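User: What would this chain look like folded?
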Amino acid sequence: MGLSSSLATAMSGLRANQAALSIVSSNVANSQTPGYVAQTPNQIAVTTGNFGATAMTTGVSRDIDNYVLNQLRTETGGAGYADQMANILKQLQNVYGTPGNSGTLESSLNKFTTSLQALSTSAGSSSAQRVALGAAQGLAQQLNVTTKGIQSLRSNVEQDLGTSARAANAAMNQIADINTKLQGLAPTDPSAATLMDQRDQAINSLSKYVDVRVTTDGSNQANIYTTTGIQLVGAGLASQFSFTSVGALSATSLYNVDPAKSGVGAFNIKLPNGSSIDVAGNNVVSSGQIAADLKLRDQTLVQAQNQVDQLAATMSSALSDKTTAGSPVSGPPAGFDIDLAGAQPGNTVNFTYTDSTNTQRQITLVNVTDPAALPLQNATNANPMQIGVNFSGGMGAIASALNTALSGSHLTFSAAPLPAIATTLRITDDNSGLAKVNSASSTKTISSLTSGGPQLPLFTDGGQALYTGAITASGSQMTGLAGRIAVNTQLTADPTRLSIYSTSPVTPAGDTTRSDYLYSQLTTAVYSYSPQTGLGSASQPFTGSVSNFLQQFLSVQANASTQATQLQQGQSVVVSTLQAKFNSTSKVNLDSEMSNLIQLQNAYAANARIMSVVQSMMDTLLQAKQ
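Assistant: Here's the prediction, encoded as structure tokens.
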């Protein structure tokens, strides 16, 4: 090797050392900078004719494990989802209160039933009547407070959607802007490495709110999609979430795929091509804080409201509704006559029959006076199956509608012949032997405090209107009932009606018929509950007493909160583990950098020594020629 080639090699070594020292310096200086990924120089040996091999720095490489990074982003979305679910469900438990403490639904119901029991032991006592009335008012108020708490949580989640949308949009805009800046820059360009660090930080921030899938093309452009395939960011383009709040939500503020019917804030995503997609209706996101907020607002907390509404509705109906068995028709054809006189919207006729496969079926006819609410939507294999009919349409119209709805059942519906009254419906088999009507009854809401029976319209919908379970095009009367339920104002004005159920003849002094009935209806009578409460199913609904139902849904909610907290904790461990794994390869290691620095210093000294020796030898040669 000649002196010139030795000098060229040494000089290239010094330049390479200088570039490497600059990178080490940058690594050390940014060791605490969030999102900074450690860099290493890209160096190659270059043969340059007579000068031999020299070192050349061609840029930098980021020490990043993309597989771990993608896993980390996936689990960060899961953590965002789990955190929000656990947080809100924990607050929901605070709304219900601690079991056994005062000021809870459970304690309020227990106080009311205990007061009814005491009323039976002190029949006619004005003091016992006032205590029972106060306990009923306390229970109604507790239901009101619980509804207010649930809807407050829904309103908070609704507002959080707006906050999350703005944060996600900011991250997507930043990613798109960095994509533009990276166009034309090689991935090994030191300035590109800094931009990619910033882009990764923005993607990590976005993954907290939505699930992301990231691909990078040949021009170093990051393309981001949700797991459902909706593009969030492309080359210089970003989608945008939009949220239009409706303000505070109520129990009747429900999501509907039809924007004109929806009672909650519209949450859409506008794609770069200009099209807009309903995020909730199309399940655009499946993880992250936004997905949690949508599920909480439109499903989880709605179900919690359904549970307290069902409790309020069952209590109201249990105390005020009177069920009367149908009059048997010996036949043939055999069946029952049902009197529909006095039936109010929402009141029902229930009957069971054995079909041609020897399977017992249950049918509930619901009095629906709003034609826009018909036909009723039944879940597949619902038990009982509900059929909406306008009872005021006359027996001929009712029978015709039912014969159409249950065609093929081998049942016949008709107006009962004279001398039956004009409001009597007859339900029989068709005399083919392929079906048998086993039982039939009608359930009507009693409106009078002194009807002569033990039933009592103790609770009302808003203080005046009775709860009858009416169904209209705008929904069921049960929706939001827990927030409106109140003690009947007529009873408030005259608490003696808790004992007196007849004025002609007058209820005897000391009679406990009504108080015994009310107590039994709330503690031992068994009812069937809607599967919309999350308990049971359409084919096998949950059944039990009012107390059983309350304890069951409180237990289910407590378990859901516990599971959400456990998921949150588990998700936190997963994210921490992945973050540590990512940091082990991508974060600056000061020990390694110091070791690299020593090696570079030694290499620098070696190259400098070569240059010094070459200079000395050249000086010697020049002196020898003189």
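The CA atoms of residues 324 and 468 lie 16 Å apart. If you want, I can go into more detail on any region.
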